[in-house]
């Protein structure tokens, strides 16, 4: 085991919690396993689609209101990039290989070198949900629970530790507001210029 590879032994609290979740997962019906396998990717697609809908809803809004919606996807991309960078630096082995005595994961264990910490799925799910809520608060009751379920599915399927998912979700939830806030002024100015160049005028109310 290389010295720069983070390894969680089979006896520590993270491994014990991972075993508990996997044990719970194996006690659920097979259709729940199937739903989790499809939902782990499908949840991200639904969240990203809702972000697109949020942008569409504000297409006629003033640049100051539209800019945060348009900045949502770039902010999610920034969060993902940070998550991927942390993975390469930390290099935590996947629990489906590292935890001794744990049941086989429900989903296939990712290939060696596809590190575990933090969870990219959790990062993207939380980041997208927050990006939606920033510009469409009424959608919070949909996107926030969906983000939680999507993130939890990574542990349920056996490919992440709970702390991977918690860290990824926290990263996504923090980065998106910071990026939107930092880029709000130039984003608003750019949106206004693009609209002016396109000859857009807001319809009279």
Tags for this model:
205 residues; mainly alpha; Vanadium-containing Chloroperoxidase, domain 1; Phosphatase PAP2 family protein; PAP2/HPO; transmembrane helix; PAP2/HPO_sf
Mean of residue pLDDT values? 85
Q: Give the count of helical stretches.
A: 8
CATH architectural designation: Up-down Bundle
Q: Sheet bearing the most strands, described?
A: none
CATH class: Mainly Alpha
SSE order, one letter for each helix or strand: HHHHHHHH
What is the alpha-carbon Rg in Å?
A: 20 Å
- How helical, in percent, are the residues? 55-70%
CATH topology: Vanadium-containing Chloroperoxidase, domain 1
Q: What's the count of strands?
A: 0
Contiguous low-pLDDT stretches (5 residues minimum) are none
Given helix and strand content, the structural type is mainly alpha
Please tell me the total number of domains.
1
How far is it from the N-terminal to the C-terminal residue, by CA?
Answer: 67 Å
Roughly what fraction of the amino acids lie in strands? Answer: under 5%
Q: Which geometry do the CA atoms define?
A: elongated
What does this entry look like structurally?
The chain is mainly alpha-helical and 205 residues long. It has a single domain (13-197), classed as Vanadium-containing Chloroperoxidase, domain 1 (Up-down Bundle), CATH 1.20.144. 69% of the residues lie in helices and 0% in strands. The chain is built from 8 helices and no strands. The relative contact order is 0.18. The mean pLDDT is 85. It is found in: Cell membrane. Residues 66-180 form the Phosphatidic acid phosphatase type 2/haloperoxidase domain.
